[in-house]
Amino acid sequence: MVKAIQIGLGHWGFSWTKDVIPKVPNIEMVGYVDSNPDATARVQAELGVPESLCFNDLETAAGAVKAELAICTLRTEAHYPVVRRCLELGLSVIVEKPFATTIAQAKELVALAKANGRVLMVSQNYRFQPGPIAAAELIGAQKFGPVNLVSIDFRRHAPSQGYRYWDMPDPLLADMSIHHFDLMRMVLSDNPRRVSCRTWNPPASPFGHHPIGVATLEFERGTIVSYRGSWMSSGPVTPWSGEWVMDCSEGEILWSSRDHFMGKSGPDRLSLRPLDGELTPVPLEPVQYADRVGTLAAIARVIETGTVPARFSSGEDNLHSLALVQATILSASRGGDWVEIAEVLQ
């Protein structure tokens, strides 16, 4: 069993407390931390958490209980200072994306985790679904040969779907596209070399910043990805992971994942179309622990066994996803000029 404390019990943190943590059998909760007494009172009243396990600050919790893992479910700007302190206290950490605000902060956290012999994981929950796992395995096995072009579309109409973060900077690239960018790296098993991106805000949009964007991404092995994303689309809604068409030398791989819309949930889908052949759906193997449950189960196994599985989103690995977000934002600020990933990572 991995003894854990959770830090951050707000709206999203409470969702972790209620819907995620109880589903990982080898996690033993020994503490819950939030500076807001109403938040700790809520987990006590609604989830039956003993008052003795609730703390107002990290330092007190770390001194009172013996924990191995910190589950950091806080607002983004708090990630860096809290994760840093957790690592300094000798805890391994799982944290929501993005795990830091700047590349410099992210590098510091990665170095600190390595120096202290601790595991730092970013909860890239979209990785833990049947669709992208199957696509990654097919690409790795060269099912249809080398990849020529990847096309990805993400379409949602935020005003009619309960979206509420109208003033968030870079609501598409930083908050949503980071999932798609991370999946590109996972499925292709490759890192980006350079990007070109344009974003804009249409008339009558409630967004304070740009909710629509297009990007071209060139990966190190030469694969080109064409990406289109919109929070203001009036077209057919896509699954949260987007609609993917992977054009290879000998055929196409088409897939989608996390098909949740207006309270309804559908399965991941993947189809194959050989060159000049018919499109054929492929049955997908279910994953034991999906989505956020999958990320928490993954770090628990790493702590228990010391073995890092394939496609594990460590802080060090996730530097490249964070850099991709920042490179697209930088390119958009330059009117779509190409930005080298090396420029952002330096």
UniProtKB/TrEMBL annotation:
Residues 134-249 form the GFO/IDH/MocA-like oxidoreductase domain. Gene3D superfamilies: Dihydrodipicolinate Reductase, domain 2, NAD(P)-binding Rossmann-like Domain. SUPFAM superfamilies: Glyceraldehyde-3-phosphate dehydrogenase-like, C-terminal domain (SSF55347), NAD(P)-binding Rossmann-fold domains (SSF51735). It comes from the Bacteria. It holds the Pfam family GFO_IDH_MocA_C3. GO terms for molecular function: nucleotide binding. Residues 7-123 form the Gfo/Idh/MocA-like oxidoreductase N-terminal domain. PANTHER family: CONSERVED EXPRESSED OXIDOREDUCTASE (EUROFUNG) (PTHR43708), OXIDOREDUCTASE (PTHR43708:SF8). This is Predicted dehydrogenase. It comes from Devosia limi DSM 17137.
